Automatic annotation (TrEMBL):
It comes from the Bacteria. It catalyses: a (3R)-hydroxyacyl-[ACP] + NADP(+) = a 3-oxoacyl-[ACP] + NADPH + H(+). It comes from Antrihabitans cavernicola. This is 3-oxoacyl-[acyl-carrier-protein] reductase MabA. Gene3D superfamilies: NAD(P)-binding Rossmann-like Domain. It is found in: Secreted, Cell wall.
Amino acid sequence: MDEQTTLAGRVALVTGGSRGIGRGIAEALGRAGAAVAVNYRHREDEAAAAVAAIDEAGGRAIAVCADVSVAAEVQALTEQVVSELGPVDVLVNNAGIATIRGVDDITEADFDQTLSVNLKSAFLCTQAVLPGMRERGWGRIVNISSIAARGAGGIGVHYNASKSGLEGLTRGYAARLAPDGITVNAIAPGLVDTEMAAPLKESGVADRIPVGRIGRPDEIGQAVLMVIGNAYLTGQTVAVNGGGSFV
């Protein structure tokens, strides 16, 4: 599969695409030929840097500010992307938060916010792009899960619940949207070298990963391209964790 032409003429939206794993995915999609909408919530400068990197590599991108856990903002985001780039063909639900909390420290507010940002946002964004994908008979949705969906993880039970829910959402949509030419899959990264993972990285967990290191954002981007490129793959969660888990 030629990465340079795979997504030529397609439009991709990456939520939380301004940094970390999201940026790695956005840049991979840009290299593959897609026009990329980089969604962000707070860090405008980092979103601009991601757009510049895609542009400098010969791609096309825009930055769009929106809180994707809020329905009205998702609607406005989608309308802006359609207006500036065209209908969304590829949706990557990457936006998420990882607030570390112990069992005795987690609050109801922590739980609600995590479920809203990590899970509800994927539902809202998927619902927003579905009509256009159905109309064109083609669509690719990729949800960014985590090894915490099927293991203990190091963030907290609220994070476990949000990522497990995301994988359930993936399977539910996949079963219902396959006849429309839309595939829905999840990528479950292990520890990746990002700002969000810094507290875990410093704990020495990398020493227990079989490949001997933590992952890179661009490697998650490669995995996203892999599932997008396979029209027969849907409803699956692909673990990308350096051999740290085989579940």
